Amino acid sequence: MEDISFEAITDKDIVELTSIMRESFNQDSAVNLGNGVKNGPPGYDNGEFLNKWALHNDSTSFKILRSDECIGGVILWITEKQINKLGCLFLKPELQGRGMGTYLWKCIENMYPETKIWHTETIGYSMSNHHFYVNKCGFNIISIEEPFNKLERQFIMEKKMK
């Protein structure tokens, strides 16, 4: 695919990545919840989320570059037992639905070939996220938290590696 690279996120990247994250989550919310609706994890729209999690001592986080242009980011939790977690993967909205996310996920899997199990979770109302994780990346839904609360419902997923 295109000239894609991953670089560690630093505090200097937070403003640009927050803008991309805000755009991405707001578009997903508008599509799934109605025009003008903005929803995401606490702090997704003001930098608090990325400051807390992308710069966390125990996380591994990357900004994703395409030909030196920042197009998104990823936060991972890599453990000694190789039971790892995808905390967050986000892309500019105009790049979604075109195979870029699937390509990036394959790159991430290749970066951590010793992984036994990947875990992730996603908001319950986002059909495109469910499609992406289940049909494109091979995750299975293992539980649903807050199943009757449209805004708080979470799909808990895992992918057992071969």
Low-confidence stretches: none
Number of separate strands: 7
Largest sheet: 7 strands, mixed
Please bin the fraction of helical residues: 25-40%
Structural class: alpha+beta
Number of helical segments with 4 or more residues: 4
Mean pLDDT: 94
Strand order of the largest sheet: 1-2-3-4-5-7-6
Beta-strand content bin:
25-35%
Secondary-structure element order, as H and E?
EHHEEEHEHEE
Dominant shape: globular
N-to-C span:
24 Å
What does this structure look like?
This protein has a seven-stranded mixed β-sheet, sandwiched between helices. It is built from four helices and seven strands; from the N terminus they run βααβββαβαββ. The chain is globular. 30% of the residues lie in helices and 31% in strands. The mean pLDDT is 94. With 162 residues, the protein is an alpha+beta fold.
Main features:
162 residues; single chain; 4 helices; seven-stranded mixed sheet
Task: Sum this structure up briefly.
The protein has helices spanning 14-33, 48-53, 100-111, 127-136, and strands at residues 4-8, 60-66, 69-77, 83-91, 117-123, 140-145, 154-160.
Describe the protein's topology.
Blueprint: E1 4-8, H1 14-33, H2 48-53, E2 60-66, E3 69-77, E4 83-91, H3 100-111, E5 117-123, H4 127-136, E6 140-145, E7 154-160
